[in-house]
């Protein structure tokens, strides 16, 4: 009994496995956005954009919102700060 070779895909058309992988990656990204899990990743991206011009990646005159001046918060520090902010900034309105 001989095995048949796999049928080649037309050029430019992704395989079923590739399309499935892409769909699952999009679903995971959507889920992470919906649950807030991607917040730290967005924080790091924003930090890199806003602090790209700082000397040695930190320092500079950024005012009180800059933090310790020694780079971005660790993931643990970020989630603690986010929880503290949620506890102190209570929104009493419905909208």
Note down, in words, how this protein is organized:
By secondary structure, the protein is mostly helical. The protein has a domain at 17-54 and 74-93. It is 48% helix and 0% strand. The chain has three helices and no strands. Residues 1-22, 55-75 are annotated as: Disordered. Residues 55-64 have a biased composition (Basic and acidic residues). Residues 1-11 have a biased composition (Pro residues). This is DUF466 domain-containing protein. Pfam families: Sel_put.
Secondary structure topology:
Layout: H1 16-35, H2 39-50, H3 75-88
Pfam family, one: Sel_put
InterPro entries: Sel_put
Biased composition (Basic and acidic residues): 55-64
Structure characteristics:
single chain, about 100 residues, mainly alpha, about 50% helix, elongated
Low-confidence stretches: 57-61
Q: What percentage of the residues does DSSP assign to strands (E)?
A: under 5%
Count of DSSP helices? 3
Estimated helix fraction: 40-55%
Biggest sheet details: none
User: Which descriptor suits the 3D outline?
Assistant: elongated
């Amino acid at each position: 009994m001989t095995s048949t070779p796999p049928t080649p895909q037309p050029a430019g058309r992704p395989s079923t496995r590739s399309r499935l992988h892409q769909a699952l990656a999009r679903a995971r990204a959507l889920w992470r956005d919906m649950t807030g899990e991607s917040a730290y990743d967005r924080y790091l991206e924003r930090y890199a954009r806003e602090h790209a011009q700082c000397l040695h990646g930190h320092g500079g005159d950024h005012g009180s919102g800059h933090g310790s001046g020694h780079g971005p918060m660790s993931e643990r520090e970020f989630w603690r700060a986010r929880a503290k902010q949620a506890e102190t900034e209570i929104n009493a309105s419905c909208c």
